Amino acid sequence: AATQPSTNWHLRENAREHHTSKFSSEELIVRRGQPFTITFNGTERPEQNLIFIAETGPKPSKATKTLATFDISSTASKEGWSAVVQSTSSNSVSISISSPHNAVIGRYRLSVQKGSSSPASLGTFVLLFNPWSSGDDVFMPNKAECEEYVLEEFGIIFAGNKNHISSFGWNFGQFQGDILNICLSIMDRSLYYRQDPVTDVSHRHDPRYLGRVLSAMVNANDDQGVVLGNWSGKYEGGKNPSSWTGSGEILQSWKKSGFKPVKYGQCWVFAAVLTTVLRCLGIPTRTITNFSSAHDADGNLRVDEYYDADGNHLERGSDSVWNFHVWNESWFTRNDLGPSYSGWQVLDATPQEQSGGIYQCGPASRYAIKEGEVDLDYDGTFVFAEVNADCMYWNYDSATGKKNLIFSKSTEIGASISTKAVGRDDRVDVTSDYKYEEGSAKERDIFKKARKKLGLEDKFDPTAPKLEEIEQKPDISGKFKVAGSLEVGKDLNLLLVLENLQSDAKTVNVNMTAWSTLYTRRRVNQIWKDSLSVTLAPKEEKQFPIKIKYPEYQQQLTTDKTIQVTALCHVEDGIQVLVERNIALDNPAIDIQVLGEAKVNKEVVVEVAFTNPINMEVKDCVLQVEGSDLLQGILELRIPPLKASETSSTKFKLVPSEAGPKHLLVNFSCDKFADIKTFKMVNVIN
Question: pLDDT tens-digit profile of 467-488?
């Protein structure tokens, strides 16, 4: 066998050219469609008859573009792989190797053959997508967007509800430790790979294909993927979904456990992990939050909600409206659909409905969603409904099985669609990229177009409704107003405002309930119920104060800190009116101070302060800290119990490993408050 040549991969220079410097790897990591340089020795007069072999996957072949053999040429090839001599010395040669723009991505084995001798291995390297290169399907012309959507390890995820948007930080950590290797293992554990490894690997040049495969692999359904979803409100045997602060811990746990699904996730966890994996592989990706997000299980672009006579929201039917839902957008061309459908594509790794027999969703072109082109690949109908479905509210009598329409709303679903700004820690509203203005003629036209494409015009035509779908005009209107602050630990003060719309007096019987819910509006515990009777004079408006005290709701609250308040108003000789409000409570604040300047490889002290806002002791206090390039892994600190109004101050040390703006994420929990999160930007200098 040929003597093993020793290879200099020029790791630092190649990484700088290929925007891969953030990976901490001893292996060469480069992007496709762009030359990289290697030097190796053990060849005399090297530029003569050298043949290079680059291969990937289990059964490399030229037919599947997983094997390339190429010799020395004078210039780089536009089409295939090529090698150009940079310089030679008596016993070594420097070669510039180029891969095609549409090369399969993954780990390659590189060897060289001289004349008729057997090939000698030069080692391995990893090839990724290249958003900086104009020939790549993921090319993103705006460099600041490449920095944000591929290289940024910190993100902000929006949550809460449309009346009250909140946000928290997330550490994507795509360049940390072993994450790249874990991402490569995810691809090799998919159902597609298990069924037909050769074909699967040959498709890995295509971001559409990988986006779809990875949306399936990030959830545990079907394939023992990364994260197991749990929307029960009970999280024994795993971590509460709201306690994670980054993807690294989740991906590392998956690998350490021998690839057993990590417990537990909800939508933002699936979206954040998918962001990490796609950014790691070089596909520009971001998280998107849709408020009042519809889960239309039966594909009729309509969500049916049921209530009993007491105003309790019933778990009937499989449709639902979530306070918010988080998915992903990835940036690539859609050669299958045409140029106008390129750009941002929706992917969703949360297991909601099956597509092609497994829990995967997308890529759906965002432009196609806006234009109502719901028949285009993939899963356009489901995504269109998430932002556009009409809402139908029914009163259901379980004794008789009768249902009556209380009212319908076409402007309820898909509000304040949000993502993090490029280069800033701000929210950007992208609702107008998903739909035309709510209530406009154009928006209704698109909705009709989508219904027509799905063959739905006959089933529910608003101009010719079935008998039980006739919507009558109500005699009164109602709303809940918030009076005072919405904070965990404080009493909840609301006003029920009722107004008589008619010119004669109306008597109204009101049944009210308050339930703690998950962010999906699934009811968990009843907190409070009450009823009142009132006569409203003609055109009169009356306000009824409602107080739910902290001790009443404290035990019942879920870690989502959401409460649904409902008033079902029975108007004598009139139709029922449903008044509903979803309330998201804020956690108390937590404060981070960096004491002194943060410098590379120098210790800096950070102080975290929390004041107990309630008039009882809090115990089991734990502080969790993470941040890429600021500390390795996750720091967990136990804090002694805090009496009423007492402040705890905790200090710890960081040793930053890289200069630039970095983000420190803090999560504080105790027996009365779950997952109080905050983050701080730390500017690290050399």
Answer: 455 667 889 999 999 998 999 9
